[in-house]
Structures are given as structure tokens and as C-alpha cells.
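user: Please supply your own:

assistant:
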Amino acid sequence: MLVLLATSSALDGGASSSFFIIILIITLVTIWVLYAATRLAILPLVALFESDLPILRTVKRTSTLMKGYGQIFFVQLIVLFLLVNIAVSILLTSIFSEGFANLLSALVSLAMGLIMSGIMVLLYRNRRDVIG
């Protein structure tokens, strides 16, 4: 929607200011989403393992567990996940045909997602033991 608005106003001629405003809004929303993701990354795990807590207390507990090292670890994990997926995709595309490389890349992404879920459980258990 915002991109279509920016494109249509870009065609009108006076779009430079509205285009930059839309880009700024998209950037700010992206930053907010990433910030919320780093604070609430283990929310499903806290809700699963500490099911006796009400939802608002679960959100507060998640934020407490993710403070400091938990957020740094999560960002490192996401960056590592992206870099491994990009490297595997480039490597597979250079070795195999495009269709088979896409299939293998999807399987590697699935495996990395499963591994990442396991690592998030370990992060929850570690933070619970450290913070209490």
C-alpha cells in the first residue's frame, strides 16, 4: 500500500518529499519490529514452559529473560542464520541446476529453522537458570 502510494506520487512529479517520508516510516516500523522481536523472541517458550503465568506476566517475564545477553545472542543467531542461508544458496546455485539448488536451499533453511528452534529452547533454559 505504501509502496503503491509512493510510486503513484513519484509519477506526479512532486514526490521526492512524500517518497522519503514513506521510506522513513517503513524504516521506523522495521526498527520497531526488530526491537520487539529481540525482546519477545522466547515468548512462546515461556508461555509453554511456565503455563501457570497469566499472559501479561508472561510478556513481562519474557522481557526480563531476554534483557542484555539474551538480546545480543538472538541478534547473533539471526545474523548467523541469514549468512549461512545466503552462503548455502550461492554455493548450491553454482554447483547444481537452479531448480534442484532451490529445493536444496529450502531443505537447508528448514533444517536451520529446526536447529534455531532448539537453540532458542536452550537460550530459554540458560536464561531461566541465570536470572531465575
In short: The helical segments are 2-12, 16-39, 43-49, 55-66, 69-95, 98-131.
